[in-house]
Write a structure and sequence with these properties.
By secondary structure, the chain is mainly beta. Helices cover about 5% and strands about 50% of the residues. It has a six-stranded antiparallel β-sheet with strand order 1-2-5-12-7-10. The protein has a five-stranded antiparallel β-sheet with strand order 9-8-11-6-13, with no helix packed on it. A hairpin with a 5-residue loop joins strand 1 and strand 2.
Amino acid sequence: MTARDVIQTLGLAPHPEGGWYREIYRSADRVQRGTETRSATTAIYYLLEHQQLSRWHVVDADEIWHFYGGAPLELLSYDPRSRELKREVLHSTAADTRPVGVIPAGVWQAARTLAQAPGEYSLVGCTVSPGFEFAGFRFTIDLPDHSAHFVGDLSQYAALL
């Protein structure tokens, strides 16, 4: 299947950070977090086509990425408190890869497909707990002093802003 076939079959829509998505689960169970309640967990399909990327962003909840199919996916995480940059490649069968990546709440993240030709894609699922809310999502470029972090090792990934 091509990327377009998967997008159509799964009923995916454009995602603000790049790529395509569809929420497939939102728990009816509610959890208390500070002064708000939200779903205990949510899950989406997420697809990046050849040359697409997930721009640097931060979510206020833990996010688990699950590789489903297609080309490997490069998953980047950066903890602004410790200034630690991690790069993982998600895939199910390739050497030096993992099928799952975990991004703790508050850690910056970005991703890009390693697809090499038009029509190719990376398909993953993202599970967020407590459940994802767009109110808890921020693009890194909108955070104060974000540019002070894009030096050294992180500078090579500034194009993902």
